[in-house]
Design goal:
globular, about 160 residues, mainly alpha, 6 helices
């Protein structure tokens, strides 16, 4: 009789795992925001409700991305400001895509419009993930240790 074989499980690459966490956290906040927008739009003008939901959901998503998606120790208003800039850039990108569509095709079908919007949103999301990972939630200690390891004294000692 042979011994039972152990199943080898592959650990996903840390970048892939972070991206999955980013999508789940962002998607969850997006769904919750959608529901909150429906509830608030009965009590106040849609534009005010949308602005309020956008600000609150951005703060919540930033906290989730920092703690869950990127497992970062960075906190504070500076992080929220940087994250807010990525949201503004994403908004400008998706709005620009829709404006270009309407310039090319003045009355697109709802399917075409949604395809353009969702494609632009996906690209903006990938860009936002990259910026949050590289700039906003970058491990400052790691870059400092790289700088120290490449200092003149360290290189001289290694030689």
């Amino acid at each position: 009789m042979t011994a039972p074989s152990r199943r080898q499980t592959r650990t996903p690459h840390p970048l892939v795992a972070a991206f999955v966490r980013f999508v789940v956290c962002g998607g969850g906040v997006g769904l919750a925001s959608s529901g909150a927008l429906v509830l608030l739009s009965d009590r106040m003008p849609m534009t005010v409700a949308n602005a309020l939901i956008t600000v609150v959901s951005t703060v919540i998503a930033t906290e989730l991305h920092g703690r869950v998606s990127f497992r970062s120790e960075r906190k504070g208003w500076g992080v929220h400001l940087q994250s807010g800039v990525t949201v503004a850039v994403s908004y400008a990108f998706t709005t620009g895509a829709l404006l270009c569509l309407h310039a090319v095709r003045p009355e697109p079908s709802a399917v075409v419009e949604q395809a353009v919007y969702l494609s632009a949103s996906a690209l903006a999301g990938i860009g936002r993930f990259a910026l949050l990972r590289i700039v906003v939630f970058a491990d400052r200690n790691q870059s400092r240790s790289i700088d120290e390891s490449l200092s003149r004294d360290a290189v001289a000692m290694a030689a």
